[in-house]
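re the bet — no i am not wrong, look at it urself. input seq straight from the record:
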Amino acid sequence: MTNGKRVVVVLPAYNAAKTLEQTLKDVPPGVVDEFLLVDDASRDDTVAEARRLGIPFIVHPTNRGYGGNQKTCYTEALRRGADIVIMLHPDYQYSPKLIGAMAWLVASGEFDVVLGSRILGTGALKGGMPFYKYVSNRFLTAVENVLLGIKLSEYHTGYRTFSRKVLETLPLEENSDDFVFDNQMLAQAAFFGFRIGEISCPTKYFAEASSINFRRSVIYGLGVLHTALQFRLHRWGLRHYRIFDPAGRRLKAVPSAEPLPIMES
């Protein structure tokens, strides 16, 4: 618990067997009430590692994509009664040591969403971020800041903390099941008026850390620009998009006091 709030860390996993244990070891003690791993049809021993480490997990029998994985993560976290949900990649790219600080920033009521930014400070390039990704990150962020009317150092981090209210309010089921889900979610948070904060986060790029290739990066970048343009057109009343519609489809989760079973289907 953090400030009386139940904290659940969700781990959207794909081929994370080699890094899962180290990721969990670096999580500060006494902060997290429950972990939940969602395996998106990995081809390695991620599920076996989760079982060995005693972490509750859910397995997608077929790959649903990064966005689809997150939808399962958040639905199950809400079902388990989470007040604060932290998404941490189990590939050890982001520092788990910051979980306590990120949880507190939401639990204190200062922010509704907190991002672990790789751009704040000097950590991105020193941590091994490819230069083309750094440049594209800065360009896309600048465009988004203009079109969304807010100011963030980056929109593309995978290290995020959300209040329960955010996850219950945003029409997340309207979003893509692919990587652009991340960006759509932040655009929705901005559109619905939630307060977004950032904390500087060291990052590591290495062989086992997940990263999309150049082609997928280009597709993601185009999706980011499309989302930002949709935001502005919807805000001006020129077009209507379901991802920004208060009546859009939300995650459906019924709180349960029962232990979360290990599920493989």
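see?? Confidence is low (pLDDT under 50) at residues 256-260. told u. also The chain has one domain: 7-244. so pay up
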